[in-house]
Design goal:
7 helices; kinase activity; 11 strands; six-stranded parallel β-sheet; P-loop_NTPase; Kinase; transferase
């Protein structure tokens, strides 16, 4: 996967490795692009049969990024918000979210598996995925369905993510969010230092990058 909007230098001091122990492309979407394209969207090329995991803290901007995404025909996008909206339409009015949170997770993950088994060339998956086991499960699912796993990580400070939650009007409880924040901090370090193998490529951006949008190309 490459970001065509701006060339990103490879940091040889922090390589990432895939399952074959070859170097994995790692890069950061820079806030300041000397080429003068800092206000443009990320352009991500995903050749062949692929799975792109868009991950980061709740409130980091994943839904914002996907809401403005431009992609070729046939790309499947699996957003937990979509699964939740479908359930809301079927449940009695006023049903509190905690009562069906588990069902939203089941519906979303089931949809991800079915999409990966399908014919779509690219599947885009929206998950916080701050836990290593979740990201590992996504990589296993991708490879077991003949897809190359790519990661787009939104590296956002907890206070910005919390502000994003208030903007959207849905706030994660304090204890679960603190757990997410701790895992996200460790994830950012692991990705920068190449201690998470298995990805075909890894890219990071911040909340301002998420607001600029995403363009997928093949």
């Amino acid at each position: 996967m490459t970001i065509a909007r701006a060339a990103v230098p490879h940091d040889a001091s922090t390589p990432t490795e895939d399952v074959a122990s070859a170097a994995v492309p790692y890069g950061t979407d820079p806030a300041g692009d000397p080429a003068g394209h800092a206000d443009g969207p990320l352009v991500v090329r995903l050749p062949g049969r692929t799975l792109l995991l868009v991950a980061g803290l709740p409130g980091a901007g994943k839904s914002t990024l996907l809401a403005t995404m431009t992609a070729p025909p046939g790309v499947r996008v699996l957003d937990s918000g979509t699964a939740r909206a479908r359930l809301v339409r079927r449940l009695p009015a006023g049903t509190p979210y905690p009562a069906y949170r588990w069902l939203t997770h089941v519906a979303h993950r089931t949809g991800v598996v079915l999409a990966c088994l399908g014919r779509a060339g690219t599947v885009v998956v929206h998950l916080p995925a701050t836990a290593p086991r979740v990201r590992a499960a996504v990589r296993v699912l991708a490879r077991s369905t003949g897809r190359a796993p790519h990661l787009l990580w939104l590296d956002v400070p907890p206070e910005q993510a919390m502000a994003g939650q208030h903007e959207r009007g849905r706030v994660v409880r304090a204890r679960p969010f603190a757990a997410h924040a701790g895992r996200a901090a460790r994830t950012s370090v692991s990705l920068r230092t190449g201690r998470e193998p298995g990805w075909a490529s890894v890219r990071t951006t911040d909340r301002s990058g998420a607001r600029r949008g995403l363009v997928l190309a093949q």
